[in-house]
Amino acid sequence: VTPARLPVPAPERTPETEAFWKATAAGRLVLAHCDDCDSVIWYPKTYCPDCGGLSVSWTDASGRGTVYSFSVVHRAPGAFSDAAPFVVAYVELEEGPRVLTNIVGCDPEAVAIGQAVQVVFCDTGEGSALYRFEPAAPPGDG
Amino acid sequence: MTSRRARIAGVYEHPRREIPDRSVSQVHAEVALGALADAGLAVSDVDGYFCDSSTGFGPVSMAEYLNLHPRVVDSTETGGSSYLVHVGHAADAIAAGRCAVALVSMAGLARSQGQRPTARSSGSPEAAFESTWGMSAVTGYALAAQRHMFEFGTTSAQLAEVKVAASLHAQHNPHALLPKPVTVAEVLDSPLISSPLHRLDCCVVTDGGGAAVVVAPEVARDLGRRCVKVLGHAETVKHTGNGRIDLTVSGAATTGPQAFAEASLTPADVDYVSIYDSFTITVIETLEDLGFCEKGHGGPFVLDGALVAPEGRLPCNTDGGGLCNNHPSNRGGMTKIIEAVRQLRGEAHPAVQVPDCTVALAHGTGGSLGTRMGSATLLLGQEDV
Fold first, then answer.
1. Does the pLDDT value for residue B90 go beyond 70?
2. By the 8 A CB rule, do B379 and B263 touch?
3. What is the reported pTM?
4. Nearest chain B alpha carbon to A97
């Protein structure tokens, strides 16, 4: 199972999310940090839900996280209908936010809550990439 | 506000589940007239109007279609919970003296128009970060179910008990889309749609609609109808909280205690519940959050026919619910209100009528579960409660 099996639809971009998506095209997962209270903000936006701040800085995430919850999708909408079964999951990033994503690079039935994962990027061909996650390499591997 | 408590004087559920020969506005009109006739009122009596935006310009379009002249109008959009919010807002408007006869109507043709539940995020700021990954409505609830199983040991067989109870009720409802009783084994043997949810963990997709008429106490007195008192209501929006998602807690944890406090009641006082059942997990998580059992104990709570009327500990969704009877327009809130009113009036099917039903709770869920959702609770009672 490779990431390429799943559709890679280009996300809708707005001026508010341009910095985020531009970074994905360069293989970087960035997070907005509030300049006022230093909260990590998710989903990407320039408003801090924690303090109401309107100034953010985009900093690189580690790309590591753990599976918070997941579902093996057997019946899927639209472009994803031919890709089933595939995994939709919330991954808790090391920086804190729980992020909706796909788990790829493994048998869908092997995914488990608590599993360590790391980010991979799937190019949309339109100046952005989708952040997906695959099982983290075991310690000492490679 | 107690002395000004509003009454529900009339309700009507469209009897059909597939209506390819009608427009949405036609169905609105049919259910509006049905509920007004049930109350003994006329279109010309209505001075408050509440509906969603399914007819384009929402209440503006429908007020014109029905020839209403509302002094109060509201189209609050919280998904399937909208109609419980509308009844709550109508009760507030009545208590404030702003209107005396409020009509709440809903209609949709999800089944014949091929509309499946969506994640309801198109055009919203969060859409690009969710639907792009193959997210759907059922997967949102599946993620909650998976986490509930992980944290509390809830099982697929326990989820299936919710469907079994709904099906045992639906066999007595001549209008139910799925009137055949099913077993736990049949639920578990049905195809996985989005693990851990099977096909039979999911609600039906139907056309249809319903309406309710909420009136001032002095209007209710003159009608000579058996009316139902609005004892308490609460609404909220729960969301992802800046990435701090908690999938195992729903908005009911907020609205339940508030509604009970307004009504000066506790879960032990409730004889019947209409619990939003878009999926089986929705019922289990909501029952916990409303305080009918400890958090995490919803799975064991629904065993042994606990939800089955009339003998179960907490009869639930005696019309067959969204799981078997009706989920018009992918929005189950109105049918939750309607069956609660039937129970309090003693007008449920005799096989599922709860004896001495004096207090009922109706709860609506809109959107997803635990993440981004509308939530609304209504406590309803007989006149002498």
1. yes
2. yes
3. 0.96
4. B243
